[in-house]
């Protein structure tokens, strides 16, 4: 599945007829539609020079959490740790911001441009413990491709 998706992601990113936001939107939709346990897929980016994240393109249900302070929730923690955060069971997390009662697990992978953590891709799943290292490697690849158009 991921091997087939990589060239599709690359092709969306390289399509010169779309704006950066349109490309990110298309990537979110591709991942949500193709990977059965990806129920919400979105990008958050550092909001200017503020110590907070702002929601960017996403696919899935609208969320109230369009702004997330650094340190808060899984996303806010990744903004300061610079490391992938895999949450097999959100109920076991103290510092977690619930977006929907159907969500059981989450993965957040930071997005680096020129070595700087400028945002992240965030996946919510309605399945418990679905994520493996393959998801991490794949999402790192997605973020590397996205970084090419943001630098
Ligand atoms: N659950 C996230 C908040 C963002 S929503 O999943 C879209 C968190 O704890 O940071």
Brief descriptors of the model:
151 residues; alpha+beta; 6-stranded antiparallel β-sheet; 6 strands; globular; binds methionine sulfoxide
Number of strands: 6
What letter string, H or E per element, gives the SSE order? HHEEEHEEEH
Strand residue content: 25-35%
| List of distinct ligands in this structure | methionine sulfoxide
Gap from first CA to last CA:
28 Å
- Shape label: globular
**How many whole angstroms does the radius of gyration measure?**
14 Å
Give the biggest beta sheet. 6 strands, antiparallel
Provide the residue-averaged pLDDT.
Answer: 97
Helix segment tally:
4
Helix fraction, binned, reads 25-40%
Strand order of the largest sheet: 3-2-1-6-5-4
- Sequence stretches where pLDDT stays below 50 over 5 or more residues: none
Alpha-beta classification: alpha+beta
Secondary-structure blueprint of this entry?
Layout: H1 2-14, H2 20-34, E1 40-46, E2 52-59, E3 67-69, H3 73-81, E4 85-87, E5 105-113, E6 116-125, H4 133-150
Antiparallel strand pairs: 1-2, 1-6, 2-3, 4-5, 5-6
Methionine sulfoxide binds next to strand 1, helix 3 and strand 6.
Please tell me about this protein's structure.
There is one protein chain. The protein has helices at 2-14, 20-34, 73-81, 133-150, and strands at 40-46, 52-59, 67-69, 85-87, 105-113, 116-125. The longest helix is centred in the C-terminal third of the chain and has 18 residues, at 133-150. A 6-stranded antiparallel sheet has the order 3-2-1-6-5-4, sandwiched between helices. Helix 1 (2-14) runs antiparallel to helix 2 (20-34) and helix 1 runs parallel beside helix 4 (133-150). The model has no long low-confidence stretch (mean pLDDT 97). It has 151 residues and is an alpha+beta fold. It is globular. A hairpin with a 7-residue loop joins strand 2 and strand 3. Residues 40, 42, 63, 65, 68, 73-76, 96-97, 99, 106, 122, 124 line the site of methionine sulfoxide.
């Amino acid at each position: 599945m991921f091997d087939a998706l990589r060239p599709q992601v690359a092709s969306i990113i390289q399509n010169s007829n779309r704006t950066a936001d349109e490309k990110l939107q298309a990537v979110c939709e591709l991942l949500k539609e193709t990977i059965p346990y990806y129920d919400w897929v979105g990008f958050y980016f550092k909001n200017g020079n503020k110590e907070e994240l702002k929601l960017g393109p996403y696919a899935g249900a609208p969320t109230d959490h369009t702004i997330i302070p650094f340190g808060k929730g899984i996303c806010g923690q990744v903004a300061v740790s610079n490391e992938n955060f895999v949450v097999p069971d959100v109920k076991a997390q103290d510092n977690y911001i619930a977006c929907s009662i159907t969500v059981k697990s989450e993965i957040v992978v930071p997005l680096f441009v020129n070595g700087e953590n400028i945002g992240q891709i965030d996946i919510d799943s309605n399945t418990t413990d679905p994520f493996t290292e393959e998801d991490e490697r794949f999402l790192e690849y997605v973020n590397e491709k996205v970084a090419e158009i943001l630098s």
